[in-house]
Amino acid sequence: MRISRWLVGAVMLLVWLALWGGVTRLNLVGGVLVVVLLALVFPLPAAPAGRRLSPVGLVLLAGHVAADLLRSSVQVAWLSLRPGPAPAGAIVAVRLRGGGDSVVVTVAQLLTLVPGTLTVDLDLPAATLYVHVPVTGPHEDVPGAVRDQVLRLEEQVRRALPPARPRDGARRGRTAQGGGTR
């Protein structure tokens, strides 16, 4: 069992204890048994290698998302309080620059987290998101503004989840057995 699976098990145990409202021997033993049973019945798939986390990128991404949350919350609050009809909505297709499935899915999830936006469809092979947004300005400006917003978010996600560097042997052209290239 890898460290990540141990971490998931520890978090599950903490949730179990929180649900029971305290730490007793019986709750602890029962929680461990439930975690082990769940791990055996529903094993976690192995996470694909190829990504690592960049601490600086994560901080920048968190700041970007926090600013989006604040801006969008104010915008949605204003749209709900202002007089007049509700704004129209638009669905905009945004083709991402790439970076793998993990980047595409992370961008889709973060967009859905922001008030007023919703990822309505995701085409992984084409790396295309279909995003629903409220139309608050001229209709012809909406697709470009949404694409710019999504591509800026994608750039932040790519900084936070850069591709893993090849191992020393792979960089020097060595095979797994330690032989050189031909």
Quickly describe the structure:
Helix content is 54%, strand content 11%. The chain contains 6 helices and 3 strands, in the order H-H-H-E-H-E-E-H-H.
Question: What can you see in these coordinates?
Answer:
- It is a single chain.
- The chain is mainly α and 182 residues long.
- The chain has 2 domains: 3-41, no CATH class; 55-160, no CATH class.
- Helix content is 54%, strand content 11%.
- The chain contains 6 helices and 3 strands, in the order H-H-H-E-H-E-E-H-H.
- The chain has helices at 3-20, 25-41, 55-81, 101-113, 142-160, 168-171; strands at 89-95, 118-123, 128-134.
- Strands 1-3-2 form a 3-stranded antiparallel sheet, with helices on one face.
- Helix 3 runs antiparallel to helix 5 and helix 4 (101-113) crosses helix 5.
- The protein is extended and about 60 Å long.
Pick out its properties:
disordered C terminus; single chain; mainly alpha; 2 domains; 11% strand
Major sheet size, sense and barrel closure? 3 strands, antiparallel
Total tally of structural domains = 2
Q: How much of the sequence is in beta strands?
A: 5-15%
Average pLDDT, rounded to a whole number, is 82
Radius of gyration: 22 Å
Shape: extended
According to DSSP, the number of beta strands is 3
Approximately how much helix is present in the residues? 40-55%
User: Looking across the biggest beta sheet, what order are the strands in?
Assistant: 1-3-2
Number of helices: 6
What class would the helix/strand composition place it in?
mainly alpha
Q: How far do the termini sit from each other?
A: 37 Å
| SSE string | HHHEHEEHH
Uncertain spans, ≥5 residues at pLDDT below 50? 171-182
